[in-house]
TrEMBL record:
EC nos: 2.7.4.3
Lineage of the organism: Eukaryota, Viridiplantae, Streptophyta, Embryophyta, Tracheophyta
Top-level lineage group: Eukaryota
Protein's organism: Linum tenue
UniProt cross-references to Gene3D superfamilies, sorted A to Z: P-loop containing nucleotide triphosphate hydrolases
Alphabetical UniProt keywords: Kinase, Nucleotide-binding, Transferase
Protein name: adenylate kinase
Enzyme class, first EC level, given as a word: transferase
Length: 272
């Protein structure tokens, strides 16, 4: 992307600014180059135009730049965020807020796994074998799913929010080798006693899939209350084991991301 101070700014095709701008041609309709149209967006301090670097329009435009004009290269990249935390730490709530505010693509490994398995894909079938055997899905399978999702056009344009991944140093290193790294790594820090209270009090509405809490977020009607169920993994014993495992996993990626400029610790111990 080429930025011109106080004069037209050229953006390569596909940029967010160019996508939002109306179409305009640099040449009159009689010109053979009329079809080489560009995008124009008016702003108080500059104009934004989009042309292809290989097009004749671009070549002619560059020739018209006054001598001595300073040009600097710049690129506006979409936001990339990773979020980590133990079960019941509030990842779901925080992810909703982040997506609403920044318009990022929310990517959850759990959702990806379910989609791959239900779709009967090659990766899904491999993952299903481990899941049916009660084993953890290997890193290489999960990483393949995540990198495949991150390569789609919507994440390139809007940015992404990676939920609960990477969970280990090896997963983080796999992403690092592919030059996939976050701008911000968020860790939700909640005391163990609060996490356990949240889990053992959680109830699932099997009809809507909505999660309630018997003390902090009860349902609004007796009809809903009567059909609530306890999730199998929300017993106190399983919750404690899950927190221990989660704490061990989430601390590992911090070896790569734990820096004042990148990592953000959030206290989320308020009652839900």
């Amino acid at each position: 992307m080429l930025l011109f101070s106080s004069v037209p700014t050229l953006h390569y095709p596909g940029s967010a600014a160019a996508a939002a701008a109306p179409s305009l041609s640099l040449f009159p309709s009689s010109s053979p180059y009329h079809s080489s149209s560009v995008s124009l967006q008016q702003a108080p301090w500059h104009r934004v135009m989009e042309v292809s670097p290989s097009s004749t329009a671009y070549q002619l435009r560059m020739k018209s730049i006054p001598k001595g004009l300073r040009i600097r290269c710049s690129a506006v990249e979409p936001l990339k965020v990773m979020i980590s935390g133990a079960p019941a730490s509030g990842k779901g709530t925080q992810c909703e807020l982040i997506v609403q505010k920044f318009g990022l693509i929310h990517i959850s490994t759990g959702d990806l796994l379910r989609a791959e398995v239900s779709g009967g894909t090659e990766i899904g079938n491999k993952a299903k074998e481990f899941m049916n055997a009660g084993k953890l899905v290997p890193d290489e399978i999960v990483t393949a799913m995540v990198t495949g999702r991150l390569s789609r056009q919507d994440t390139k344009e809007k940015g992404w929010l990676l939920d609960g991944y990477p969970r280990s140093a090896s997963q983080a290193e796999s992403l690092e080798k592919l030059n996939i790294r976050p701008d911000i790594y968020i860790v939700l820090n909640v005391p163990d006693e609060v996490l356990i209270d949240r889990c053992v009090g959680r109830r699932l509405d099997p009809v809507t899939g909505k999660i309630y809490h018997i003390k902090n977020f009860p349902p609004g009607s007796e009809e809903i209350k009567a059909r609530l169920t306890v999730r199998p993994d929300d017993t106190e014993e399983k919750s404690v084991l899950s927190f221990i495992s989660s704490e061990q996993y989430q601390s590992q990626p911090l070896t790569l991301y734990d820096s004042p400029s990148k990592c953000r610790w959030m206290e989320t111990d308020r009652k839900m």
